[in-house]
Amino acid sequence: MKMPSDSELTVLFEGDGQQLEQFAFAYSATIDWREEDEEIVRLFGKRLPDETVEVTTTDKGLDITYNGQVHSIALTFTGADRYITIRGFQELVRDKYEIRLFEASYFSDTHEFLILPKRQWEELDARYPVRSREIFRVIDDELDFP
Length: 146
Hints:
By secondary structure, this protein is α+β, with helices and mostly antiparallel strands. The protein has six helices and seven strands. The protein has helices at residues 6-14, 17-27, 37-46, 81-93, 118-127, 129-135, and strands at 29-32, 53-57, 61-66, 69-74, 97-102, 110-117, 136-138. The strands form two sheets. It has a four-stranded antiparallel β-sheet with strand order 1-6-5-7. Helix 3 (37-46) packs parallel to helix 4 (81-93) and helix 5 crosses helix 6. The protein is globular. The model has no long low-confidence stretch (mean pLDDT 93).
């Protein structure tokens, strides 16, 4: 899958609600609160066209191979694991990418995420500081499904 172009991002930040929905449909990774943790990693990995991401479940959690290096994420094997996996994946890719939640999906049982290169997020935050906070929520330790 490809990353959104600069012009598509401009439409996202300057457009209306319908354009936001269309953008989210085209570019978001959609995660249901019941999603398997391996599938979350696969969905995020598909959104990183220049990266290699593989995942396996172990008796302790997940082993994620990101660009040839294995990283482990310990899971609790409870519903809390969805965001443990999301935060863990964010930690793996944080040098190059950032994952953010579409704010409009927060009170749903299905969350939509956008992954962009960190440089692009920095540019968008500088250009659209208020709109960026309205549309997106940064992944932090408090974020979870409602």
